[in-house]
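**User:** Hello, beginner here. Are you able to go through the protein record under this note? It all follows right here:
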Amino acid sequence: MAVPFFNLAPDMTVSRLCLGTMTFGEQNTLPQSFQLLDKALDSGINFFDSAEMYPVPQRAETQGRSEEYFGRWMRSRKIPRDRVIFATKVSGPSGQMTWIRNGPESLDTWNITEAIDNSLLRLQSDYIDLYQIHWPDRYVPVFGETEYDPTQNYSSVSIDEQLSALAKAIDAGKIRYIGLSNETPYGLMKFLHVAECGSGYPRIVSVQNSYNLLCRTFDSGMAECCHHERVSLLAYSPLAMGILSGKYLSLDGCPADARLNLFRGRYVEGESRYNLSSGLIRKTTELYLDIAANYGIHPVSLAIAFVLRHPLVASAVFGATKPWQLEEVLDGCRVELIPEIVAEIDRVHSAFPNPCP
């Protein structure tokens, strides 16, 4: 069975599996990255995701390598530009990555324009298919935080200015479509409202948020917005950073080169959400692994098939550092969950909802 496709925009059809590149340049060397990209394309994947800050954990010495490696791969393999759909992201305000425009400090016109131009230089490409705001330019609880604290609000760049900068990039032919990431229902609706009221502003086509068996918060409020506004979900971390593969719970111990082991203490964004010391996360994961075992399904296939069955999911954005991991994910898109399996999944979710929000 071939990888299925989804019409993300009128003239942009993407594979329902999207290979994320955030390990390229850190965990993966250039030849290893080429090997994974070759296998993905040969297997029917045409959709690839990156970000200006990648690879992770983010460092000044490696920043931008993931985009650069993808561009070098396209040129090395002489791949026609219209054969692949490439998505990347501009970093929101952080203050921690001083090597990216001093923070970055904001998502004002200058920062967005600089980010786009620098990504195009690294890619050595004329355009980016889908350009996403990696996280909002305003206070929101993200990366494992769950409660909104009004006292943390700060002055931020207006959505009008952000859309204006993105509109100019579209008019200049630098990007084709725009999306959001790590966004809330409020943020999505504000972007859509401003676009409707603005003159020639582009409309959001996708939201890239976490969605997996351990994190179904998308279904609480964002799903309703996306359904009525015809905005698709790009579901990142479909394996909950590898936890749902079962490798971190194996009796012989997880491989030392697994991300949460390799970068322990250095990858705050991942560790804050996917905390392996949490008994709740381990217990819930074990229950999903039991479901997979009882029905003779590989745990990765269960996790991927669960995400892809969601009617609002355009594509599952996954990472792989080895070809066999990529093959396991590909197998997942060939599995269809029967109602009995879905019912068991929902029973676990009802008892232990969203341990990795």
